[in-house]
Amino acid sequence: TPVIGVLALQGDVREHLVALAAADAVARPVRRPEELAEVDGLVLPGGESTTISKLAVLFGVMEPLRARVRGGMPVYGTCAGMIMLADKILDPRSGQETIGGIDMIVRRNAFGRQNESFEAAVDVRGVEGDPVEGVFIRAPWVESVGAETEVLAEHGGHIVAVRQGNALATSFHPELTGDHRVHSLFVDMVRASRTAESL
Ligand code: GLN
């Protein structure tokens, strides 16, 4: 059974732990570099990306995170977590850094004031069956992607789910819906990467 961490500095950590357990992973919170070293994959939760960035630096886990993502550890970011995985953000706040890992430019709070929170059915490539119920909360969108980044979903003409190698990101929050199919997709990515390592 894959062991998957949830970066537990700020944000909806508990919901991801529940969703990962429902998707047949062993899930545990990760705050320190020693805890990061013990997991097969990592979820970056929704929350506030500037706060998560600053706490990651403060806890000394930012560079270890970058090293593991560069080394190919499977990683999944939702909303603020998507922002953390962007190689570039359009409108960073001062002191805001990202881990990077996905060749994309992300616009924070992109859906705007009139539409700060909403739900929409989203077809996600790689998720079988009905569309996923997308919960968007002051969500980012992906402004543009590089050649190696695969677009998995769009909403209203904007990219809202992507994958590059072992890194997956969604603008929306599957952990809030009780539908574990996106988490299962990620758990499968972690399983596949463990198999590849042990060959
Ligand atoms: N707007 C938040 C940010 O910029 C993300 C919101 C969320 O994670 N639901 O970090």
From TrEMBL:
InterPro entries: Class_I_gatase-like (IPR029062), PdxT/SNO (IPR002161), PdxT/SNO_CS (IPR021196). Pfam families: SNO (PF01174). Pathway: Cofactor biosynthesis; pyridoxal 5'-phosphate biosynthesis. The active site is at C79 (nucleophile), H173 (charge relay system), E175 (charge relay system). GO terms for cellular component: cytosol; glutaminase complex. Keywords: Glutamine amidotransferase, Hydrolase, Lyase, Pyridoxal phosphate, Transferase. It catalyses: L-glutamine + H2O = L-glutamate + NH4(+); aldehydo-D-ribose 5-phosphate + D-glyceraldehyde 3-phosphate + L-glutamine = pyridoxal 5'-phosphate + L-glutamate + phosphate + 3 H2O + H(+). One of its GO terms (biological process) is pyridoxine metabolic process. L-glutamine binds at G47, E48, S49, R108, I137, R138. GO terms for molecular function: glutaminase activity; pyridoxal 5'-phosphate synthase (glutamine hydrolysing) activity; transferase activity. Its EC number is 4.3.3.6, 3.5.1.2. Belongs to the glutaminase PdxT/SNO family. NCBIfam families: PLP_synth_Pdx2. Catalyzes the hydrolysis of glutamine to glutamate and ammonia as part of the biosynthesis of pyridoxal 5'-phosphate. The resulting ammonia molecule is channeled to the active site of PdxS. In the presence of PdxS, forms a dodecamer of heterodimers. Only shows activity in the heterodimer. This is Pyridoxal 5'-phosphate synthase subunit PdxT. It comes from Streptomyces resistomycificus.
